[in-house]
Amino acid sequence: MSFIRSIATFGGFTMISRVTGFLRDMLIASFLGAGTVSDAFLVSFKLPNLFRSLFAEGAFTSAFVPLFSSKLVSSGREESIRFAAKAVSLLTFILIIFVLVFELCMPLVVKVLAPGFASDAEKVALTIALCRITFPFLLFISIVSFQAGILNSFDRFAAPAATPIILNLGIIASGLFSITFLKTPVYGLAWGITLSGIIEVLWLKYFLNKEDLRITPDFDIKKLFKDTEIRTLFKRIAPGIVGAGIYQINMVVDTILVSLVSSGAVSWLYYANRLEQLPLGVIGAAISVALLPLLTRKLKANDLKDAADTQDKAVIYGLMMSLPTAVIFISLADSLVELLFEHGKFTASDTYKTALALKAYAVGLPCYVMVKALMPNFFARGDTTTPVKYSAVVFAANLSLNLILMKPFGHIGIAAATSAAAFVSLYQYIHGLKKRGYWNISAALKQKIIDITCCTVIMGIILTLAQYLLNLILPPKHLGFLFLKLSVIGIIGLATFLISAKIKGVLDITAIIKNLLSKRKRDDKTSIKQA
Description:
single chain
């Protein structure tokens, strides 16, 4: 499958996932508002996700996918599946122990994670109860990420990308059920998270079976710990665990600091971050997921020129989509938050404070997407140590900036610190790849970056003028007119950018459409023939 088609497949389903995610968040905001119950629920939702980078999408997957893809090329399908079975068996065993320990220690975990809740005993008790319900989701989502890694290695991106939709629909369904039948609906929302995780595992198991990729568990744990291949895997995972650990400490520090700001601050940052995660998930994650197995195969075949060209494309696609999105968020933050979340218990004051955080997050958005596009270049070469070093520097920068900006600017300072740290991270990856000779920004790529920036500036100017005129014409505080205004501005902004990009020669729209509509095909001579 071509690189752009892989991105489009993963990104398309991720977009659907994000849309259902917004419906989910609109429901949560309407039912819970931005106060005590909302803060408690969102901490319980964050807790299993804090460890996803450790056991799921981060350390484990980044080490496993290159090994699995290389094994497909060198040893064939059967041996690679056998290796996968051993890996998932050990992962599941470790996770079961981990989840049980956390369930027993949950009061201490909540005390550390949200010290700002300590003055409210009822809030602490609710948070502990909700966290105990949601934490097993970590086990299921880690297995799901492992299943997705296998399918992605066989260029099957659709089913894994569609998986988060199940979680969103599960929370929506459980929320509607709970508000109707339960005295305390927040418990139903929490159970919806864990039950959705089980359904996600079964969903991907069906598609693995469909591809005749049957993973048979190995229960001989002692033998697995001694297995040479598993030891190689864990040697590569070890730096990733440290890196993911640093990242999660960063997240924990953010949560701790936000809980100290004021009641509702956890919620304001959560909803702002959810909006930022739309392009980061649709663009950044899609590029990263599609790039890793493709880059691994090209490097394994010693096709260095193609590998460099693929990396260039990843940067161009990422910047072309993330930079205009950042401008849209900064320009339309208030209207977007109002349209999506200002319903029920979510007030105009909550909208204002969430919008300020969104603007601060948006500044760093393009950097985050670029890092997502560059990171696979290290993992594809089996280098999991360098990203760890970069994570440590980013952690130190983020923590320092949090402490400096939090007191004068509150929750906005914490969001701004996150964006500033993203610039530090991007600089490290560009400098590190160049220093090792893995990749460099060519003159042609520099020109593309300048052209994309110019097109975005033009779009930003037109967006500002369009918003000013529409604010004069359309009445404020009317949901229908607000939706109309955002739709018109969105169409104008998209048209402006596409026309500018076409004139500057940044993208060939016709070629992209032909690529997306063309029949499914392999563009890599070393690709694996399906059985």
